[in-house]
Structures are given as structure tokens and as C-alpha cells.
Amino acid sequence: MDEVVVRRRADGATELRVNGVFVMDDLETSSERVLADHVLAGGAREVLVGGLGLGFTARALLDGGARRVVVAELHPEVVAAVAEGAGAGPFDDPRLEVVVGDVRDVVAAQEPASLDAICLDVDNGPDFLVHPANAALYEDTAIADCVRALRPGGQLAVWSMADSADLRAALSRHVTDVAATAVPVRLQGRDEHYWVLSGRVNRPAGGKGAP
Ligand SMILES: C[S@@+](CC[C@H](N)C(=O)[O-])C[C@H]1O[C@@H](n2cnc3c(N)ncnc32)[C@H](O)[C@@H]1O
Questions:
Q1: Is residue 93 part of a domain?
Q2: Sheet holding 150-160, edge to edge
Q3: How much is the pTM?
Q4: Does any ligand 1 atom lie closer than 6 A to the CB of residue 62?
Q5: Mean pLDDT in runs of 10 for the chain (211 residues)?
Q6: Rounded to the nearest whole angstrom, what is the distance from the C-alpha of residue 130 to the centroid of ligand 1?
Q7: Domain count, the chain
Q8: FRET partner for 119 with CA separation of 20 to 30 A, picked from 74, 155, 174, 186?
């Protein structure tokens, strides 16, 4: 059983930890919002997000005009904390559905070709797992499930602490236009980068497909 803590630190920031491992705080959330902006800029309006966290990706999607946002969150304690106002919460928006569960199961349960984008932000990136079981999320079976749930032209975007050659290679086996986008962030007084790794489902030649 995971130990989930959402707490207010002495510096006033709200912090999420799982099993003692720092997951995120609400001091520097630009990359979580960039994850949303990335798929909105690509035309996405119906989006599934893996990992509610402190809700900044979901909030940016809703503020950016998404029509429907489904968020899969493993830990009910995180959902409860955001509902009580932690991070970007609370949410009172009929376009948002939060499902407690593993994002792999939630993706697998989607209708085929029913989403414009899937945003994954469940760890500190594929090479910095908080939950060892999430390794499978970045492998062929799970990526293929994402592709199945996406419309032609749909986008798969993954937040990562670092660029990942392995994930780019895995994405390239399933999607096109694979890219690693550096997101500048300021961390404890230093200029650093986080990353969004992304790709698109191939449109059939001459096909229409959204977005
Ligand atoms: C880094 S936070 C997400 C941050 C979020 N993008 C935001 O804007 O605040 C990662 C979240 O993913 C959740 N998580 C981890 N593994 C998961 C899984 N397999 N399925 C669903 N949620 C998961 C964690 O509990 C945590 O809330």
C-alpha cells in the first residue's frame, strides 16, 4: 500500500510525496501546464490525462478550451486533496471527469479512436519512476493501447524530467512526428529543463480524422 502525503510546507508550498519520494509541488508548475498547451496547440479538445497530481495540467486544459477532460489518478487521497483545494483545485466543471484507477486500465477502457490526445504525467519521467509498475506504461503494449484510443492525427504527450532515447524509440514504433521539447524551468534558483516527449497517430492517406 502506497503512503501518499499532500502537505503544506514551511515555505507555504503544497507538496505531494508518495512513499517518501517527492513527486511535485506547486512552486514551479509551468511544465505541467506546457504539457496541456502542447496538445491544445495541436488542436486537441477531448483529452485523457494520466495523473491528476496537483491538477495543473487538467486546469490548463480546461482554461485552454478543452471540451472533455478525463483524468485517471491512482490515489484517492490525491483526488480528495485537490477537491479540498490543494494545488489547482478545487474543480467544479462538468467537462472534467476524474477516475480513480491506473491510467493503463483507463486508457484500455476508452472507445477506439475517441480521444484527440493523451497526456501522461505519472512519474518523474520514464527513467525516474515513482511506481516501478509504471515502467510498462512506456512500453509497446501500453503505447499501442494509447494509439488505439486516439483518433487519426491524435497526440500522445509524455512529461519527463529528462529526454529519454528509449521512450523516443518506443514512441517511434507507434506514432509519427516524434519530438522531445525542452521546457525551461527555474528550480531552486537554477535554470533547468523538463521535457515533453510526443508523437502523433498517423492519419490514413487521404483520411480526415481529428484534430
Ligand atoms: C507528477 S504528478 C502529476 C502532475 C500533474 N500533471 C499536475 O499538473 O499537477 C503524478 C501523479 O500521477 C499519479 N499516478 C502515478 N501512477 C499512476 C498510474 N499508473 N495511473 C494513474 N495515476 C498515477 C500520482 O499519484 C500523481 O498524482
A1: yes
A2: 96-100, 68-73, 46-50, 115-120, 150-160, 190-200, 176-187
A3: 0.96
A4: no
A5: 94 95 93 97 98 98 98 98 97 98 98 98 89 95 98 97 96 98 91 96 66 55
A6: 10
A7: 1
A8: 186
